[in-house]
Amino acid sequence: MRFNQTQASRWLISCTAVALFTVAGCGAEEAPERVQKTPEPTVRTGAPGPPDGAPEETESESDRAPGRGAAAPPTPDDLPEGLVLALAQFGPRQAGKAPKPLPATLEFLVRREGEWKVDLVEDPQSNVFHKAMVYSAPGGKDQLLSAAGSEATLKLWSPGKDGAVSETIWEKDFGGKFSRMRDIEIGDLDGTGEPVIAVATHDQGVVALVRRDPETNTFSVEEIDEEPDTFVHEVEIGDLDGDGVLEVYATPSEPNRLDGSEQSGIVTRYVPAKGEGRTVVADLGDRHAKEIYVGDVDGDGIDELYVIVEGKIDKKTKKLIAPVEIRRYDAGTDPTQGAVVATIDDRLGRFLTAGDFDGDGDQELVAALFSSGVWLLEPGEDPRGTWNQTLIDEDSGGFEHAAVAADLDADGVDELYVASDNDSEVRRYVWVDGKPVREVIYRRTNGNSVFTWNIMPVPVDLVP
For 310-363, how does the pLDDT look when each residue is reduced to its tens digit (9 = 90+)? Predict the structure, then answer.
């Protein structure tokens, strides 16, 4: 594998960030170390300073930006939905000192009066938020559900008179080196109409379901899987066999390694409504996955499972010897025979998101990878064959490289939002005449090192 100058620069920046987070014990592969327990965490809201993105790009930015010369339609002055970013943050680096982890932070970007405004919530009980998303209970008000690490907590947040107000619905020390609520998804997993929260955790292999009792509005936890010294990176919910019953998919693997050592992993399935426990649906051998996506991308009315299989590097030379693969699994696919629909020269891939970005009525898949940029993947005549690959933006990167498809302007066509942590920017992409046009909607300037773990749409009514 060879990199061009831009890719090499991105790789170096990303590797520097990995080293920073690893040394600090937060984020990346060995992140966050346990922090001192705070019985009643103090929650603070406020803005970290006005964003200076959204705006005009400099000439050099315009030269390298996708869609240079194309004009995107004007963004409405006010949008009904914004974005919530789940972060780990560190204070500015000081010579001879380890970077200092800051409280777990939720960062909100909302468009009001023609500008992208920024608000944030900090929770010192933990030092990383891995995800935040909308939780809607039947007959109740919407709330924001967060998953945090070290300490591991699930919390529900609501706007209050003096800022955000939280309620802890699950908190646990899993007994290993790390305790993290690593990922969450929500679905009617019992077929009762009640939302059930599926949770992936570190580092004892726990996959759990969190249910609300509609009578008492209290929550109970069922741990449906566990395995010592195991990281479960991701959960997804979908229906691959088309029987109308939702399944849960998860990605357990051996503990994270950075030195090129083998790290084996699998993808597992659980069907709570049928009482079915662990079934291995993807056996990745001596490789593993940190990102999966379940959805109907090919438009046949039945969900598929897409797995980003991480690349391999030579432990001695540190050179890439096996690139990232994106494999597709359908109901009944042999766990060792996933169809490789895309191969990309990169080492890591942590985000897949699907949407209709060009307004043609068909879904496309976007992969945001470690150092090679953001890619658009489109199925051909055979959706189990090799897909068409288009590089959306090579000048975008980060260890997680969070991305999400969302129709914030409610025009019926999805936009793509990407956190390029290498550039301290959040970017919005819209498609004009079939090509992506990039807009920087936020640029961080406070000097902190930031690790964006996730990005999701959020109604403005839930923003504190």
Answer: 999 888 888 999 999 999 999 999 999 999 999 999 999 999 999 999 999 999
Average pLDDT over residues 10-30: 45
| pTM, rounded to two decimals | 0.89
Q: For residue range 113-161, what is the model confidence (pLDDT) as tens digits? A: 999 999 999 999 999 999 999 999 998 899 999 999 989 999 999 999 8
Please give the pLDDT value at position 43: 46
* Buried/exposed code over 332-342 (b: 16+ C-beta within 10 A; e: otherwise): ebeeeebbebb
